[in-house]
Specification:
- By secondary structure, this protein is α+β, with helices and mostly antiparallel strands.
- The chain has nine helices and nine strands.
- The protein has helices spanning 10-21, 72-82, 123-138, 165-175, 218-231, 234-248, 254-261, 268-276, 287-299; strands at 24-31, 39-47, 50-58, 92-96, 106-110, 185-187, 196-199, 202-206, 213-215.
- Helix 4 crosses helix 7 and helix 5 crosses helix 7.
- It starts with 9 loop residues before the first helix and ends with a helix.
- 38% of the residues are buried.
């Protein structure tokens, strides 16, 4: 995955990883593909006569903004609590939260087997597995900081690029009202196809717990749906919702869906293409139409 990377700070990174694992790094760190908020290097370490695969995540541009108060300490705390709970999350090996040792805030963890799958052979099974795993995540007993709202509906306007202004007006009118009463639980914070690894048609890893918090699980559902409609279509996003609801045994919130969808802008395509990293072709021309179709179908559920 990716080639060698000669960026600054790698000698310090190697030394820190060796301290964390109690072994020696073999070869050079390899920059892994994708990623927007951080850069991740894969390393192989010799520990007690066996090879251990390690991932080192460096926040070279600062921590990401989003729901909750993302901190590297928070991510480390979540990973430590997840160990042994059954969800395939990386195991925490070490943390340099200030970047004093490595040069940037850095998290060292086990590197899980598997790869991103963006063009599954069986889309229905793939979508069902995504939904089932999210229900499992939401049922975990993990301490996390409370939700801190970051979305301000009052700041939203009908976009000048839309050909369906009435649709957006209806959506903004809905989210101008308070959200309905909701259940609470652990929220991953960035649950979507780019943070899921697959091995032999099964999910082998759930990555990127930097923005995890305690609050409405439907935020995760809505975020996953926005990603699915951007990459695929409204049908895939709707199937994901129905599969989630069937396993969770409850309906999800249209309000949360709409609040996520009105954050869409066509420039999302730039970040998506970087995350896709040539694993599939992104149909950019129809992306806005797909999102607006899902927005209409969501408003029809209100």
């Amino acid at each position: 995955m990716g080639g060698g990377d000669q960026s600054s700070g790698l000698p310090e990174l190697v030394a820190f990883v060796e301290t964390c694992v109690g072994g020696r790094v073999l070869g050079h760190p390899r920059r892994l593909r994708g990623g927007v908020a951080s850069e991740v290097h894969g390393l192989t370490c010799s520990v007690g006569g066996r090879d251990v695969r390690v991932a080192a995540r460096r926040y070279t541009s600062g921590l990401p903004l989003g729901p909750g108060p993302p901190t590297i300490e928070g991510e480390a705390s979540t990973l430590a609590q997840l160990e042994g709970l059954g969800v395939p999350a990386p195991r925490l090996l070490g943390c340099d939260p200030s970047g004093e040792i490595v040069g940037h805030p850095t998290l060292v963890m086990t590197r899980l087997p598997g790869r991103l799958v963006l063009q599954p052979n069986d889309p229905a099974s793939w979508t069902r597995s995504l939904a089932e795993m999210l229900v499992e995540v939401h049922g975990l007993s993990v301490a996390a900081p409370p939700y801190e709202p970051w979305f301000d509906p009052a700041a939203c306007r009908v976009p000048d690029w839309t050909a369906r202004p009435a649709l957006w007006s209806a959506a903004l009118e809905l989210v101008a009202s308070p959200p309905p009463d909701e259940s609470s639980g652990l929220v991953h914070g960035d649950y979507q196809q780019f943070n899921i690894l697959w091995h032999r048609d099964r999910i082998s890893g759930v990555l990127d717990w930097a923005g995890s918090w305690f609050g409405s699980p439907d935020v995760d559902v809505a975020h996953a749906r926005l990603n699915l409609v951007c990459l695929y279509d409204a049908d895939r996003a709707e199937t994901f919702r129905r599969e989630y609801e069937a396993v969770a045994g409850r309906d999800t919130s249209p309000w949360r869906d709409v609040a996520e969808l009105v954050g869409y802008v066509p420039s999302f395509a730039r970040a998506l293409r970087r995350q896709i990293a040539r694993r599939m072709t992104l149909e950019i021309k129809g992306m806005t139409t797909r999102v607006e179709d899902l927005l209409q179908r969501t408003l029809d559920r209100v």
